[in-house]
Amino acid sequence: MSVILHDLCGADPDRRFSPYCWRVRMALAHKGVAHEALPWRFTDKAAIADAGTDKVPVLRHAGRAIAESWTILEYLEDHWPGAPSLFGGEGGRALSRFVNTWSDAVMMTGIARLVVSDIPAHLAPADAEYFTRTREARFGRALPEVTASREREVEGFRRDLHPLRMVLRERPWLSGPTAGAADFIAFGPLQWARCVSAFPLLTPDDPVHAWRGRLLDAFGGLARAAPAEDLG
Amino acid sequence: MSVILHDLCGADPDRRFSPYCWRVRMALAHKGVAHEALPWRFTDKAAIADAGTDKVPVLRHAGRAIAESWTILEYLEDHWPGAPSLFGGEGGRALSRFVNTWSDAVMMTGIARLVVSDIPAHLAPADAEYFTRTREARFGRALPEVTASREREVEGFRRDLHPLRMVLRERPWLSGPTAGAADFIAFGPLQWARCVSAFPLLTPDDPVHAWRGRLLDAFGGLARAAPAEDLG
């Protein structure tokens, strides 16, 4: 197959949980690009070193190795111009970048504080040691301490989703009449959480919850079929 | 003149400070639509009642009266299709709506808590009474109490601008190669503050500050020429 994605996995090679890889997997499905998603672990640095990075996603196509999810989305849009658009034009491309910085700053950061302690149990031993050590250094405390108050702190996270919720009260997708890159960018962090943690981030009556459900169902239920913990 | 904008003003009819009206004024300038911006005060409800609203902006064109800034931006895009685009295509239009909900939830709400007590001094007496009464009801306390801790609370507001800042570190405009609706939507609340309060919302080394400066200079310095308090 001519397109390969290096895709983060847990001890179970079918547990694919990277939010950044999910952005790309949804985009590949949207574009209808046939590909192989190879399992990759945090400690497999050598397998992607030629892409000049130590993190996935890395996409391989036509002799190139492309790192970083946003760069990959732009690459897909530019190299498969005849397939359904990810951005819906140049204005959509520019503003999808804002959705990306918003999703990283608000969703990734917020969700990490709510689920990070649930992740090591899903990892192969060497990855669990690597993950725990690097994340404890980042947070400055043990991972169970980071999430100890999550029952209370999830309220703040839900409030921070208000701009997304306001749009989804009016319309089914963020990107336009159909789902697109901005939807996949915001979905990635929620799918990350779903794959590693049973902690309920969203209430069932939240328009964000319903939108997540539509994205889980998209592309023949690609994301819903993934091994996961939060089945709500 | 065939296009009229009802535009909120203070006791001085030249002090135009509505964040929502500024979104529309910048969009009218971007489109090059000749218009008259008529001064309107909070208590002039009768002047806009035919638009089915009690708030400005209201745009009059071709016998129609159109309320609500987002609706007006879409109207301008659709009725002046040959003029420079506000959205850069359908994807940009959809995601500008997300920027609008983000700007309202994060910027408007955040800035209101930092500057609201500075507004009544700029208003005509009947408006000052109306504004103080309605806003104190909204906040549940006296306006000087709302802003009493602003020297400290501005730090949180600046942190909340991080998604915007991340984009503006990479590129000059939010909307694409040129400024567009998303820029004007995020600029409106900052221009609101600038017109009524000397309190510095942004530090001079912030990419958001530099971007605000570019928008103040746009269209021959339209926004910079407006009577204002924060001249930084």
From TrEMBL, chains A, B:
Membrane spanning residue stretches: none
Q: Where is the GST N-terminal domain?
A: 8-84
Show the InterPro entries listed in the entry: Glutathione-S-Trfase_C_sf, Glutathione_S-Trfase_N, GST_UstS-like_C, Omega/Tau-like, Thioredoxin-like_sf
Name the source organism: Muricoccus vinaceus
Q: What is this protein called?
A: Glutathione S-transferase family protein
Question: Mind telling me which PANTHER family this protein's record contains?
Answer: GLUTATHIONE S-TRANSFERASE U8, GLUTATHIONE S-TRANSFERASE, GST, SUPERFAMILY, GST DOMAIN CONTAINING
Tell me, what's a Pfam family for it?
A: GST_C_7
SUPFAM superfamilies, per database record:
GST C-terminal domain-like (SSF47616), Thioredoxin-like (SSF52833)
